[in-house]
Design a protein that fits this description.
hydrolase activity, 4 helices, hydrolase, eight-stranded mixed beta sheet, about 160 residues, alpha+beta, NUDIX_hydrolase_dom
């Protein structure tokens, strides 16, 4: 979703057996670049739902979100201002089926190996390396910051 020229994006690190799933994209501004499963939040879509939907669309996997490494604000390789919400997920079902045309490969990789990949092989490498650093240092936050009202908080249902 684009709001006032800002692109809102979700991405997910799927962790399994000390490895993370990365995908190789084939998009106009990211040809043969490795990334986490990710994509734009659709209009009026819940952020957590968007993250699970993007994983399913790009990889065929179902995930349960377990935490977040945070929110990242940067200028993308396509020269857009991006606000990226990054999550951690675990597999709950599905099977690997890469999104045709846009995703050309995938692999499971140790976080330390991902951290050592050359910048030119990664989409928005600075952000990916920030995320990996937070994962390696276990700087993970609860999902509660995205959807739980504070005690006594009244939600207006307009």
């Amino acid at each position: 979703m684009t709001q006032n020229g800002i692109v809102l994006v979700v991405s997910v690190s799927i962790l399994k057996d000390n490895e993370v799933l990365i995908i190789k994209e084939n998009k106009p501004f990211a040809i043969n670049k490795w990334n986490f499963p990710s994509g734009r939040i659709e209009n009026k879509e819940d952020i957590l739902h968007a993250a699970c939907r993007e994983v399913k669309e790009e990889t065929g996997f179902d995930v349960k979100l377990t935490g977040t490494t945070g929110i990242y604000n940067f200028i993308s390789s396509s020269n857009h201002q991006v606000i990226l919400f990054h999550f951690i997920g675990e597999l709950t079902g599905g099977s690997l089926k890469l999104e045709e045309n846009e995703i050309v490969d995938s692999k499971w990789i140790r976080l330390s190996e991902l951290m050592n990949l050359p910048y030119q092989k990664l989409r928005d490498a600075n952000v990916i390396k920030q995320i990996v650093n937070r994962l390696l240092n276990e700087k993970i936050h609860s999902l509660a910051i995205f959807n739980e009202p504070l005690k006594g908080e009244v939600l207006n249902e307009d």
